[in-house]
Structure formats: C-alpha cells, structure tokens
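Side project, low priority. Logging it here so it doesn't get lost.
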Amino acid sequence: MRATVISHAAFGCATALLASSVTYLALAQSQPAASTGVRQTELFKTTMNDVLGRVVTVRRTERDPGNGSGPHRHPGSHTIGYVLEGTYEVKVDDGPLQKLGPGETFYEPPGSLHAVSRNASSTQAVKYLVIQISDPTKPQTVPE
C-alpha cells in the first residue's frame, strides 16, 4: 500500500514538473526527417531510485501526414501524451476514438491496448510529447 501511494505521488509530481519544464525544450529541438514518417527525440530520461526504480522518459514525437502505428501495448508504462501541434487520433482499450488538438492530453494505463495512434491530417504533421513512467523489467512496447 505504501509503495502504491509513493508511486502515485511520484507519478503526479514527475508529470507536473516534466510537462511544464520540457515544453520549451520540445519546441526548440529539431531533427531531420526519417523515411518511416515518424521521428522521436528523447528529451529527458532518469531512473527514480526512490520509487521502485521506475524510469521516467520524455520524448517528442512527430508524425508525417497520415502516419500512424499499429495496435500495441506498453506493459509496464504509465503513458501520458500532450499534443503540441496538429491533430492526433488516439483510441485506448474500448474507449472512444479521440481527435486531440494542441493543449489536449491522453493517458494509457500500463498494459492497455493503444488501438489507434495516428496523425489525423493528410496535409499537416502532428507533434506531441510522450511522458512515460516505466517498470524497466517489462518490455517497452509489444505489438498486437
């Protein structure tokens, strides 16, 4: 019980601190185009030794128009997304398909099905932050 409370408190603090402090860095970074239509820039990563060794990672993801990924899961990760630019379509488990714009967020609990993850636009790139708090003993991503 105590570990759960500590984990939740650390999760909340880490999310608030990282989201506010990383936005500037995310907007300032640039990376050349990749042939896959998706680019990820790791902005921050650390191990939280006082919280069961969880790893906090912050990445900026850019998807070209129409680009998406297949259904997948993050077995050991709490995943929070924050849209910076464009429109991002996301569907988690049996939830509704959401079209998110700048300033909107999504959350994936560990092990949930990320059924839809794609750029909703056929003309404009989408950019979003991904903040994950992960159990390093579990796989990062598992395709369905």
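Brief comment: The longest strand covers residues 38-48.
Revisit when time allows.
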